[in-house]
Specification:
Blueprint: H1 18-36, H2 42-48, H3 55-84, H4 86-102, H5 110-138, H6 141-172, H7 188-194, H8 203-207, H9 217-234, H10 236-247, H11 253-304, H12 308-335, H13 342-371, H14 373-397
Helix pairs in contact: 1-5, 1-6, 2-3, 3-4, 3-5, 3-13, 4-5, 5-13, 6-11, 6-12, 9-12, 9-13, 10-11, 10-14, 11-12, 11-14, 12-13, 13-14
Amino acid sequence: MSSIGAVSPGVAEPMIPTQRRLTLLCLAALTIMSGATVAPSLPALEAHFAQHENIALLSRLILSLPALMIALCAPLAGLISDRYGRRRLLIMAVSIYTLAGASTLLQDSLEGLLASRILLGIAVAGTMTSVSALVGDYFSPAQRQVYMSQQGAFISLGGVVCLMAGGLLADIHWRAPFAIYAVAILLIPAVLRYLPEPSRNTAHQMRSGAKKETPYWPAFALLLGAAMFNSLAFFLIPTQLPFLLQELGIDTPSLAGIAIATSNLVGALASLTLYPRARDHLGKTGVFALGFAVMAFGMGLIAGAESLYAVMIATAIYGAGMGTLIPHIFATGLESAAPTLRGRISGALAASVFIGQFLSPLVSQPWIDRFGLASGFSAASCALIVFAGLALTLHWLKPKPSMEMNLQ
């Protein structure tokens, strides 16, 4: 097997084929598609299953249950990826993703719907972990930073497309958006053609100078915490914003999709433009401080919004912070990973991201039931301000050199 991604000192970095880059980008977009596609359907889905006890929470779990399975399965997927290969796991995961996602069109019970979402989460765990590890395998550090900004933009734009399409289909029927999942099967031929299995943990790699280092674990634990909380806050938007819009008299699913998609669209622009500049000028902890602060401002504006236009401005501001932070989290994590650990590091990051998504409705719904929807967004804004302050404090403290690869 070829040693993909290993570059000897003084040798020019190999160009990454465009087809390989586009295949990875499309695969990465499947993660946002797993939730964004059906977000506009939630109010209609809740009304359809209104006879079920605790349907307010269960309807939110339709969106967040896959996140629990990703959080539980991503570390195992990372181990499998490191030991048995990225591509084999990826093909199996994309196949399950297609079947589980589209099978919802045939489900006639809430229990069956929840079961299909569990399978979808397992599939996303394998997909996301394999893709992240392949990015670490294929790209040099400099190439990886550029790719991560592109991936952040592509995922956000994919969210825009899925939300818009999901909203339009939800206007027809709440089940219709689930048909979008079937398009994932089209990516398997591209995986087979453009994503060769990299060699890892071989004598050739050791001779070629591949780094054998482990992350500075306290700093990596902070990174995992930041990833989890970022997702916990973000998931308020797809799970709760459609209901906030209903309170404002806006109950058309396509309009809810547009409002949510606004954050993704601005997030795409931020990933391409704001993130590279912020990382160059602010350092790693500075980007965390900026991202959390901007998100806090946007979340606070959502809480006070009284019209669709105001909500869209607020979600746009939130998206600017989110688009800056998400690629930064994964780029920072992969920088700390030796080739033999990339699958497991990617799995840990995926688990943190999606446990935050799963916890979001469990944390927010009891608060919202007691204090109201606007109060839930206000509380999230306050918590984001706290995280921005912690990141700024770390930035001022000038972390030790041993922490620099993760934090400074």
